[in-house]
Design a protein that fits this description.
- This protein folds into 2 domains: about 1-150, Immunoglobulin-like (Sandwich), CATH 2.60.40.10; about 150-250, Sandwich (Immunoglobulin-like).
- Strands 1, 2, 4, 6, 7, 10, 11 and 12 form an 8-stranded mixed β-sheet that branches. Strands 13, 14, 15, 16 and 19 form a 5-stranded antiparallel β-sheet that branches.
- About 5% of the residues lie in helices and about 55% in strands.
- The protein starts with a strand and ends with a strand.
- It is mostly beta strands and about 260 residues long.
- It has 1 helix and 22 strands.
- The radius of gyration is 24 Å and the shape is elongated.
- The protein has one helix spanning about 15-20, and strands at about 1-5, 30, 35-40, 45, 55-60, 65-75, 80-85, 85-95, 95-105, 120-130, 135-140, 145-150, 150-155, 160, 170-180, 185-190, 195-200, 205-215, 220-225, 230-235, 245, 250.
Length: about 260
């Protein structure tokens, strides 16, 4: 992923582009130029600490006089980090339209100047401008975006004792972690609300029994009353910067 920040200030021209990126603002336009379609190959990109993920963005612009070019095609993170496309191609489907396809690679563990940081998690917006042959234009800034989230993990649910006597206490544990892009490792995700769910034996639907908050290390622990045989599991809904995750369940029989 071609990402440049102040940390790579000696790397060259691309750095200047990143450093001169303006603060987020509304789209700007003149005349009848418009983007008729902007699509992302994924609505959310979930990144762990090692494997890179590809993302394709396709945009079509239109103007009655024709489109001279679509420029930019950069992705900008919440921390104003810029991702430049690995490849770009544009075609003219008609005399009034132009279609461009940009392909990016987002890498949580690339070279120093490419490596994502935790502050980059959240909504990345597409920065591109369509210029018409008659001087009109439309500049995309914050209106088209994609979520880039830190991958989350839940350890397999553990419920015991097994089997348990009906009406007796059952202790359920687990651990929630998420990718730390600053250290390239998974770390406990504390102070998060995680649902404890139960599926009665012979049924196919889970229901939430209660919500438990992780401790500072991301650990989960609660005690419930076992009234039926079935499967227990943890389910985390995610946040604006961290993905959702559901743990493998643990089946418990009654004795």
């Amino acid at each position: 992923m071609h990402i440049r920040t102040a940390a790579a200030a000696t790397a060259g021209t691309l750095v200047v582009l990143a450093l001169s990126a303006p603060a987020a603002q509304a789209d700007t336009h003149k005349g009848d130029t418009a983007f008729t379609s902007v699509t992302f190959s994924k609505s959310t990109v979930h990144l762990g600490v090692s494997a890179a993920q590809g993302l394709t963005v396709t945009a079509t612009a239109k103007d009655n006089s024709g489109i001279k070019g679509i420029y930019g095609g950069k992705l900008v993170s919440p921390d104003r980090r810029i991702a430049f496309a690995e490849s770009a191609s544009c075609t003219t489907p008609s005399s009034t339209t132009m279609k461009c396809v940009w392909k990016y690679v987002l890498d949580p563990n690339g070279a120093d100047y490419e490596n994502l940081k935790n502050a980059d998690a959240g909504s990345w917006h597409l920065d591109a401008e369509a210029a018409a042959k008659d001087g009109d234009f439309y500049g995309l800034d914050t209106s088209k975006s994609v979520k880039v989230k830190r991958h989350a993990r839940l350890t397999a649910t553990q419920a015991g004792p097994e089997p348990v006597a009906k009406g007796h206490s059952l202790t359920v544990t687990g651990t929630l972690t998420r990718a730390d892009w600053n250290t390239d490792a998974y770390a406990g995700f504390g102070a998060q609300h995680v649902a404890l769910q139960f599926k009665k034996a012979g049924t196919s639907t889970y229901s939430t029994v209660r919500t438990v908050t992780t401790d500072g290390s991301g650990k989960l622990r609660t005690t419930v009353t076992a009234n039926s045989a079935g499967t227990w599991r943890w389910k985390f809904a995610g946040t604006g910067t961290t993905g959702a995750v559901t743990a493998t369940g643990d089946g418990v029989a009654l004795k």
